[in-house]
Write a structure and sequence with these properties.
By secondary structure, the protein is an all-alpha fold. It has two domains: 98 residues; 186 residues, no CATH class. It contains 16 helices and two strands. A two-stranded parallel ribbon has the order 1-2. α3 runs antiparallel to α4.
Length: 353
């Protein structure tokens, strides 16, 4: 018994020494445990005969994948472990859970860091050009989005599944890409053939994850996007911290209580995150109040977010409602608080192009 305690103490002390900070053992540990256990339990529950169990399991699976995605973001900012290599290993594992493993973790991390450093949304794929060149695709996308089906996100995630075959700069990743396609595609095909109900419910859970991610992402910046991920001019606002804060916004779930924001690992506190990107998720509410004051006027409340998400579910694809008259900077925040902007689409940090 004493020997067992010694081993446990050694393992615990070793783990804590590898973490960025001791508090991460509790907070990151809870989030990671929920993501993994929720994924396994949620997926297993899809096989149950009870539709009540199926419903609960689908919600659990979708949300556990969402937490896994936000933990990938934490790993990208090296808030979990001290060493980058440990964060990279965990991040790569979590990408498999949230269905974004076709490219590499480094691709996800690099694109997101360009977003922070350049103060821009740097991309490779020009989705607006796709819609202009193929109006039928645009019309179908609009019809599906009107039905709350995230077709725009499906296009982005679908292309990501073939990233090394579409992007010349990533041709050396084809082996990794093929392994992911064969494994994930094979498992899904097996489910479709033998357990079609499970396959359908998994897709529903995946849609839930994509919907949550884009719901939060859609109002965090009023940046445009530029196709300079691999080449092209750097943003004129690179390194401009004042401009960055002026064009970054915090769409939170609750101002009065902190715990509802844990549903998205405090990702809505985006001004605080951009001010100090290496701050772990569980410290962001306190940091926000330290930097911007204890005033709800500094955030976008939940209700106008919901109104905009519903009202602008089609127009936000190409921003057809506001166009050149769209507010920018501080006016954007005020307009968002009144539910008068359309928000954005296809800005997920999981899509690495």
């Amino acid at each position: 018994m004493a020997g067992t305690n010694v081993i446990q103490n050694v393992v615990m002390s070793t783990l804590i020494s590898r973490l960025k900070e001791p508090a991460g053992l509790l907070y990151h540990g809870l989030a990671l445990s929920y993501a993994v256990i929720g994924y396994v339990a949620g997926f297993a529950g899809l096989f149950a005969d009870s539709w009540v169990v199926n419903l609960f399991s689908t919600l659990l699976l979708g949300h556990s994948m969402t937490i896994a995605a936000y933990l990938v973001h934490e790993c990208g900012h090296n808030t979990v472990f001290r060493k980058k290599v440990d964060n990279a290993r965990l991040g790569a594992f979590l990408l498999w859970l949230c269905g974004a493993s076709y490219g590499t973790y480094e691709d996800v991390r690099y694109k997101h860091f360009r977003h922070h450093v350049d103060n821009d949304d740097v991309v490779w794929f020009d989705y607006e050009k796709l819609f202009v060149d193929y109006p039928v695709v645009y019309k179908i996308t609009c019809a599906l989005e009107w039905c709350y089906i995230p077709a725009h996100e499906f296009i982005m995630h679908g292309m990501m599944a073939f990233t090394s075959f579409l992007i010349p700069a990533r041709r050396d990743q084809r082996r990794h890409n093929l392994i992911s396609l064969i494994l994930r595609g094979g498992i899904f095909a097996f489910l479709v053939w033998f357990f079609p109900k499970v396959a359908i419910l998994y897709v529903v859970a995946y849609i839930l994850m994509m919907t949550i991610l884009r719901f939060v992402d859609g109002l965090e910046h009023d940046y445009g996007y530029h196709t300079n991920l691999f080449e092209g001019p750097v943003s004129e606002h690179k390194g401009d911290l004042e401009w960055e804060q002026e064009h970054t916004f915090s769409p939170i779930i609750s101002w009065k209580y902190d715990w509802p924001n844990w549903i998205i690992l405090n990702f809505g506190y985006h001004n605080a995150h951009h001010a100090r990107p290496t701050t772990p998720w569980y410290k962001l509410p306190k940091l926000h109040r330290e930097l911007f004051g204890d005033n709800p006027a500094t955030v976008i409340p939940l209700w106008p977010q919901l109104v905009m998400f519903h009202r602008c579910r089609v127009s936000r694809i190409l921003h057809t409602d506001l166009g050149e008259d769209a507010p920018f900077g501080r006016p954007y925040l005020l307009a968002a608080q009144r539910a008068e902007v359309d928000g954005g689409n296809a800005a997920s940090f999981l899509t690495s192009f």
